[in-house]
Amino acid sequence: MARLPGTPVFDPAGDQIGRVRDVVVGLRITRRPTVHGLVVEVQPRRRVFLPITRVRRIEAGAVVFTGRLNMRRFEQRATETLVIGEMLDLTVRLGDQPMTVYDVAMEEIKPSTWEITKVALYKRRRREPRTVDWSEVSGFDTLQKDQGAAGLIAAFESLRAADMASALHELPSKRRQEIARALNDTRLADVLEELPPVDQIGILGTLEPERAADVLEEMGPDDAADLLHDLPDEQAARLLALMEPGEAAPVRRLLTYPEHSAGGVMTSEPVILPPSATVAEALAHIRSQDLTPAVAAQVYVTRPPTETPTGTYLGVSHFQRLLREPPSTLLGAVIDPSIDPIRPEFTVREVTYYLANYNLVAAPVVDELGRLVGAVTVDDVLDHMLPEDWRESAGLADHDATLREEPDRDDHERADREGRP
Length: 421
Description:
Helices cover 33% and strands 24% of the residues. By secondary structure, the protein is α+β, with helices and mostly antiparallel strands. Residues 395-421 have low confidence and may be disordered. Pfam families: CBS (PF00571), MgtE_N (PF03448), SH3_actinomycetes (PF26205). This is Magnesium transporter. GO terms for molecular function: magnesium ion transmembrane transporter activity.
């Protein structure tokens, strides 16, 4: 079951409607747990419940269901357990030996009735998995102070940062903290950038100050500045002081601008090259997998130095133009003269009009001295134009009625058997 997260879910017509995020089971003291269904995430970031009675096939890389999907937002019941979020990494007992849960297996006992039948375990010091029957293991019903997170992180390893952030947001605070402690700094920084501010602040507050500063260094300067804006002044100042001076400097500069201005939402690390660089060098820079598509869409040309704030800003070269030019062509010869830069004091609304007017995905930001200080990308603008709680409320609106249904009598009977309304 640890392989299921991220698996595409297809409706009877063969259309993908979402991806599996977890499996819902009901623990029973004397019997094997019954599988109630799957938690499926549909766009935009809405989690719904797919009863196991509707699942027709579970294959490598696909879950196929029949009927129609009820789009009511999934809410976990007190009697239910999430396999990925809550069972993995538990410490249980095999006889008198403490073991850690690595994975669990479910089996179709009879048509449309699934139970957990086996558990994969390992000792903490010796990672040699051992698979045993469910009946041989005890301790799943015990509340544990420190559960660990290695198995859950492994299950979520292939997920994009935004999807992992969505999964973390739905977990209890205790599990979020355990996962945050177990993630490496780079992965945690990527996930934090996709979480709502309240989750960001909560997770950062559970870390040691030195670790929190390290994670901020791994975040984009604009995202780090946004997070520090939301912290109490004293805490923000302490974390800035713990950051490496070279990493803290661009964040400090961004904090000097109003939060909802071009300067407040821009990234201070766009792709910048001198006019003597070649098209081949520019294309090599924008190929970096660490760049978002919006940042990689253009190269900004300036006089040295080429770190913000730069020397005199000369112009922008769009990647489509770069693809049409010989690799040896100098960037100074392929600058687009029709794009004027914007000023840091522009409001987000003014930046939006600018991007829409010129059909751009990013805009250069230049100060009163003619220096490039950053670039505003379309995703920066969207983040600040949407409501502050958009990550929490995403998907609350009703969806296409063809995906919804009112339960009939048979549904109620099945739901009673599965412990759900």
